[in-house]
């Protein structure tokens, strides 16, 4: 790894974690009371797993976009698509927890899933490694879509 890649990786990780944290700002203590009162899927993981999973996924996202940014010439469209899906990711937390709107959260996360697929396809045309790093993220978001669907259906 060269110096430019490491700097890009540090900045990308900071941006990914910051955008994730911005979504988390909408989560207040009463949101957990509300969330705990919902009927959740039997497959719903323990709450402690979510911050661990997201930390790992944000690191994978940072590595992936860093690979794309460091390819010459940098594909600005690919980076913009990545940023859009990252913002959508953060927006789900605000809609679902901040606004307590599971139905709108479900609609939003389905759009996010499509944007992640578009990002993977775009990244694959530039770097297979960068696209493969996004697959666990897609899998987790699809799982989150299922969990959201379950909440919408059974509450």
From TrEMBL:
Gene3D superfamilies reported in the protein's UniProt record = TspO/MBR protein (1.20.1260.100)
- Keywords attached to this entry: Membrane, Transmembrane, Transmembrane helix
The cellular location(s) given in this protein's UniProt record come to: Membrane
> What Gene Ontology terms for biological process does this UniProt record contain?
tetrapyrrole metabolic process
Q: How does it sit in the membrane?
A: Multi-pass membrane protein
Give the stretches traversing the membrane. Answer: 48-69, 78-97, 103-121, 133-152
Q: Name one GO cellular component term.
A: membrane
What InterPro entries does the database record attribute to this sequence? TspO/MBR-related_sf (IPR038330), TspO_MBR (IPR004307)
Q: Where is the signal peptide?
A: none
Q: Chief location of this protein?
A: membrane
What family is it from?
Answer: Belongs to the TspO/BZRP family.
Q: Under which name does UniProt file this protein? A: TspO and MBR-like protein
What is the organism of origin for this protein? Answer: Brachyspira hampsonii 30446
């Amino acid at each position: 790894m060269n110096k430019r890649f490491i700097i890009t990786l540090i900045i990308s990780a900071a941006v990914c974690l910051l955008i994730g944290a911005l979504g988390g700002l909408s989560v207040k203590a009463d949101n957990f009371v509300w969330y705990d009162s919902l009927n959740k899927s039997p497959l719903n993981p323990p709450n402690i797993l979510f911050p661990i999973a997201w930390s790992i996924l944000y690191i994978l996202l940072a590595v992936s976009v860093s690979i794309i940014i460091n390819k010459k010439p940098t594909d600005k469209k690919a980076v913009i698509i990545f940023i859009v899906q990252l913002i959508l990711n953060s927006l789900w937390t605000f809609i679902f927890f901040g606004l307590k709107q599971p139905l709108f959260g479900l609609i939003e996360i389905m759009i996010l899933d499509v944007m992640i697929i578009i990002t993977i396809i775009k990244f694959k045309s530039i770097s297979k490694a960068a696209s493969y790093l996004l697959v666990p993220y897609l899998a987790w978001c699809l799982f989150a879509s299922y969990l959201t669907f379950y909440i919408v259906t059974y509450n």
